[in-house]
Amino acid sequence: MSEQCKTCPSNGGCNIDPADCGVEIEKSLLGALNSIRNVIVVMSGKGGVGKSSVTALIASSLAKEGYAVGILDADITGPSQPKAFGIQKPQITASEYGMTPPLTKLGIKLISINFFLPNEDDPVIWRGPLLAGAVNQFWGEVDWRDLDYLVVDLPPGTGDVPLTVIQSLPVNGIVIVSSPQDLAFMVVKKTINMAKKLNVPILGLIENMSYAICPHCGERLEIFGTSQGAKVANDSGLDFLGSLPWDTSLNIMVDEGKVEEYKSKEMNAIIDQILKKLP
Ligand SMILES: Nc1ncnc2c1ncn2[C@@H]1O[C@H](COP(=O)(O)OP(=O)(O)OP(=O)(O)O)[C@@H](O)[C@H]1O
């Protein structure tokens, strides 16, 4: 493996000739022009509660408010941001200031390990230190320039990558995402305790898939069990940022790469709260 491949996030896992890939960059200038005002980390205790979708919605809502926004997809083994935003196989260019992140339709700067894999469905089978190394490179070797908000999508749980991000990035606030299942709340408490132990401010809890609205009668149905978000937040001394409904149109938009087009009054109310905490 060439020296250049060793410092690349794909870690030699692609087939591109190092002479053609454009990521050989002078270390000293990497990230030198970056000025990131707020780093928001989105965590969940358990997989599948909608953390990546919520990350995409937070970033999209902030971009719609006119802020300069980036997304660091730190869910290295299960990256889903490229699909949600419909960015597949972008040509990544680089300058002496680092890799230039591709832009979404709203102009959100997005970086994800998927951009460096030969095929988007290739698995990333790395141990903790390599995963953590990729995240550090995405932070320090991407040419983010001026951002009002960098939203970080973490893998679920409290493993190596969440620990690396929380300990090595200047995190301004954590958003915790859960869903109404008992198990999800049991594990979400572990996440809350981890953030508390590491002394990083928690912006609050969002309960996703909290309920569904019957398309026929408009009744609010608690399909995943009784909503517990407000109670768990209250018991843990956290602010409850709000609930998001199960909404098939969100599911479809994420699948079609059009998450930026999703409109939600519930999300708008959540963003208002986040902006009050991190203006
Ligand atoms: N509120 C919602 N309404 C409808 N579908 C949703 C909602 N939230 C998430 N989904 C869908 O549920 C699936 C899982 O969501 P997502 O990938 O965001 O979860 P995750 O917690 O990030 O998962 P992972 O642990 O694998 O990273 C996706 O297909 C997504 O479109």
From TrEMBL:
GO MF terms, alphabetically ordered: 4 iron, 4 sulfur cluster binding; ATP binding; ATP hydrolysis activity; ATP-dependent FeS chaperone activity; metal ion binding
Record InterPro entries: Mrp-like_CS, Mrp/NBP35_ATP-bd, NUBPL-like, P-loop_NTPase, YlxH/NBP35
Gene3D superfamilies the UniProt entry points to: P-loop containing nucleotide triphosphate hydrolases (3.40.50.300)
Keyword set includes Signal: no
Matches recorded under Pfam families: ParA
Coiled coil: none
GO biological process, one term: iron-sulfur cluster assembly
Residues noted as binding ATP in the record, renumbered to the chain: 45-52
Top-level taxonomic group: Bacteria
Subunit structure: Homodimer.
Family: Belongs to the Mrp/NBP35 ATP-binding proteins family.
Function: Binds and transfers iron-sulfur (Fe-S) clusters to target apoproteins. Can hydrolyze ATP.
The protein, known as: Iron-sulfur cluster carrier protein
Source organism of the structure: Syntrophomonas wolfei subsp. wolfei (strain DSM 2245B / Goettingen)
